[in-house]
Amino acid sequence: MKKLLLAILCVMMLVSCSSKKDETIDNNVPKDQQEGTAGSNIPIKDNPEEAEYQITIAMQHLLEEVYGDKINDARIYVEKVYTAEEEQANDNLKSYNLTADEVFFEVKYELHPAEGVDVNELLTATGEYDEESGWVKEKFNVGVLRPNTDSEEPKYIITDFGTAF
Asked: What b-and-e string marks burial along 127-136, b requiring 16 or more CB atoms within 10 Å of the CB?
């Protein structure tokens, strides 16, 4: 009998707790006013998959801005997203004082020149032209992914983009 009463009490406590969670979550914001999905408030520095995704999107925007109609396609490969530990272990990286929503990264990418474009314009700093495929390959850069404070789209932008930090 005691076990049955204890089990009923436990169920009642769980139901009570779960109904309170449904009413307010996230610093007492009513559920009907909450936005986002589970885990959406995880800082980008602690979410490497999201960081890689956002780097790819930001790179697409950056390449469009830099090259415009000089390219008609690009392939982007995120090689590395630095962890907070790696950042803190490197005095140069540490000096940037990045926030939890900013990350260092390394990226390789390939560009396909638009028709009539001088390929040499796409070879600045890094890259090799592969005549067989028609792609500029072996482009490599590093950068910092940061929240875009000027606009909603893209959500993140790339700064400090170059061949080394």
From this structure: bebeeeeebb
Amino acid making up residue 79: E
In this predicted model, what pLDDT tens digit does every residue of 22-64 receive, in sequence order? 433 344 545 444 454 555 678 999 999 999 999 999 999 999 9
User: Measuring CA to CA, which residue among 79, 76, 83, 75 is closest to residue 48?
Assistant: 83
pTM: 0.74
| Neighbour-count burial of 137, counting CB atoms closer than 10 A to its CB (0-12 exposed, 13-18 middle, 19+ buried) | middle
Cα 37 to Cα 30, 31, 156, distances in angstroms: 15, 12, 18
| Token pair belonging to 47 | 């979410």
* 62 touches 56 (CB < 8 A): no
Q: Is 109 exposed, middle or buried (0-12, 13-18, 19+ CB in 10 A)?
A: buried
Q: Which one-letter amino acid corresponds to residue 76?
A: I
Nearest CA-CA partner of 54 in 94, 98, 102, 96 = 102
